[in-house]
Design goal:
- The chain is mainly alpha-helical.
- The chain has two domains: 2-109, Spidroin, repetitive domain (Enzyme I, Chain A, domain 2, Orthogonal Bundle); 128-238, Spidroin domain, C-terminal domain (Arc Repressor Mutant, subunit A, Orthogonal Bundle).
- Helices cover 68% and strands 3% of the residues.
- It has helices spanning 2-12, 15-22, 27-45, 50-64, 70-87, 96-109, 128-134, 146-165, 172-189, 194-215, 229-238; strands at residues 119-121, 124-126.
- A two-stranded antiparallel ribbon has the order 1-2.
- Helix 4 runs antiparallel to helix 5 (70-87).
Length: 239
């Protein structure tokens, strides 16, 4: 696309872009550089769902590998960003040139990207290694997808219904059964590997629980009267 061609040429000629990837000596480090670069640029341009863009960039450059040329990384970044923005309806033929220029300028003006260290996401500082590992999971085809949103909403409804029917509690076996059903849906519709599917299912479970908690009208919590959920979870998973 014209966006990818123009932005790729600009990125490849940027010394800061080249040096950032030149310092990455592992796949994890390459993905980390890509994630930070994508996050910085998305925030600078005010692009919605900055984490999804950062994850797409991280996944794209990781697939290129370690020690590739600046052109290879620039092409990977530009194609990934172009596809995501087009999918969001932000990029079209009329604004491709202007958007490519803005993207390349933002990337060049972004703070220096280091290989290691934590990353601030929505005000929270998270380990860079964790973000790199989860990059494929939180991408636009993973946790950020519309199908994942639908599963989270459905799971939240099921959890709320289970709590209501049991008098205000949620047992570990019930939660695991609901999570297992969601997991089966992820497995059949995802291109992620088994460990990434596990991560996505757990994150969807957390999202659903938070949705239920935030939708409830909780006045007080007495943890002293709550059963030992950790031990119940261990027992259930141990069979």
């Amino acid at each position: 696309s014209s966006f990818a061609q123009q932005s790729s040429a600009s990125l490849a000629s940027s010394s800061s872009f080249s040096s950032a990837f030149a310092s990455a000596n592992s796949i994890s480090a390459v993905g980390n550089v890509g994630y930070k670069l994508g996050l910085n640029v998305a925030n600078a341009l005010g692009i919605a769902n900055a984490q999804a863009l950062a994850a797409s960039v991280s996944q794209a450059v990781s697939s290129v590998g370690v020690g590739a040329s600046s052109n290879a990384y620039a092409n990977a970044v530009s194609n990934a960003v172009g596809q995501l923005l087009a999918g969001q309806g932000v990029l079209n033929a009329a604004n491709a040139g202007a958007l490519a220029s803005s993207f390349a300028n933002a990337a060049s003006a972004a703070p220096a990207v280091s290989v290691d260290g934590p990353v601030a996401v929505s005000g929270q500082v998270l380990p860079a290694s964790l973000l790199t590992t989860l990059a494929p999971v939180v991408s636009s085809s993973g946790l950020a997808s519309s199908t994942a949103s639908a599963r989270v909403s459905s799971l939240a409804q099921s959890i709320a219904s289970a709590i209501s029917s049991s008098g205000g509690t949620l047992s570990v076996p019930t939660f695991l059964n609901l999570l297992s059903s969601a997991g089966a849906q992820v497995t059949t519709s995802s291109t992620l590997n088994s460990s990434q599917v596990t991560s996505q299912v757990l994150l969807e479970g957390i999202a659903a629980l938070l949705q239920v908690i935030n939708g409830a009208q909780i006045r007080s919590v007495n943890l002293a009267n709550a059963p030992n959920v950790q031990q119940a979870l261990v027992s259930a998973l141990a069979g």
